[in-house]
Specification:
Blueprint: H1 2-5, H2 9-36, H3 47-68, H4 75-98, E1 102-103, E2 107-108, H5 110-133, H6 141-166, E3 167-168, E4 174-175, H7 187-235, H8 245-255
Antiparallel strand pairs: 1-4, 2-3
Helix pairs in contact: 2-3, 2-4, 2-6, 2-7, 3-4, 3-5, 4-5, 4-6, 5-6
Length: 256
């Protein structure tokens, strides 16, 4: 909504901020889901691959926000954008899975793996279309955006857990990232608190900025009306409302 109603540099700043907030939100759902996953062996997560999965998520969301900020979104562009974003979400998920560095490597059930990719594509297609349609303040837009958020939440969760269900771990597997990677019982709380902070800051900033813009528009309108009144008083008689000598002289100068 803020990207659609701002222009120039502010729009790009909102796009970057939105990509960060949305990307961190999608990634944290994935990473907390990973932390909830249990195996008979202790697990850790390679720092570089985990950071890469976060970067993929942010870039995918940034591309999505850029795409839906365009004046038009034809079907071909929508399908291509959904393909790129779905690939990004899938890449984030499976990069995060690779961050465990399991030995031997993880095998994936082909049917469930394909289903997870289709869910990612379908969710991205729905997200882009919904975001493009709901970027303006139309009637009942808040209710529609809430419903869209719920649909997208279920779609991303569905992709994640379908991908997790596709994973097959061989007997005797061990985590190669346990010693040098991220691990610990408090990691899920840290990710959760950080993500909620990012999302709340982004939401509050957008609301406050929208209110400030609305007040600025009201002040600008008031200033325009005041200037019109001052012009009227300067160039017309206050009693009769007829043009005065100042306006007459101005018109004569223009005619000459």
């Amino acid at each position: 909504g803020r990207i659609a109603t701002t222009k120039g540099r502010a729009a790009y700043l909102w796009m970057c901020g939105g990509a960060l907030a949305m990307g961190v939100g999608v990634w944290s759902m994935h990473f907390i889901g990973m932390l909830a996953f249990e195996l008979p062996v202790a697990l850790g997560y390679d720092i570089a691959l985990t950071a890469l999965s976060l970067l993929i998520s942010i870039l995918s969301c940034g591309f999505a926000l850029w795409l839906v900020s365009q004046p038009r979104l034809p079907l071909g562009q929508l399908l291509f954008g959904a393909l790129i974003m779905g690939t990004g979400i899938s890449g984030m998920h499976y990069t995060g899975m690779a961050a465990m560095r399991m030995q031997p490597g993880i095998d994936y059930d082909p049917s469930l793996f394909s289903a997870s990719l289709l869910i990612a594509f379908g969710a991205s297609l729905a997200a882009l279309w919904i975001a493009f349609r709901l970027r303006q303040n139309t009637p009942h837009v808040r209710l529609a955006r809430t419903g869209a958020g719920i649909v997208m939440g279920f779609a991303i969760v569905g992709m994640h857990y379908t991908g997790m269900a596709a994973a097959r771990f061989a007997d005797g597997s061990f985590c190669g990232a346990l010693g040098s990677g991220l691990s610990g019982n408090g990691l899920d709380n840290l990710v959760l608190i950080t993500t909620l902070a990012v999302l709340i800051i982004a939401l509050l900033t957008s609301v406050l900025d929208a209110r400030l813009e609305a007040r600025t528009a009201v002040l600008a309108q008031s200033l325009t009306e005041a200037n019109k009144e001052l012009t009227q008083l300067a160039l017309h008689d206050t009693l009769t409302g007829l043009p005065n000598r100042i306006l007459l002289a101005d018109r004569i100068d223009q005619a000459m």
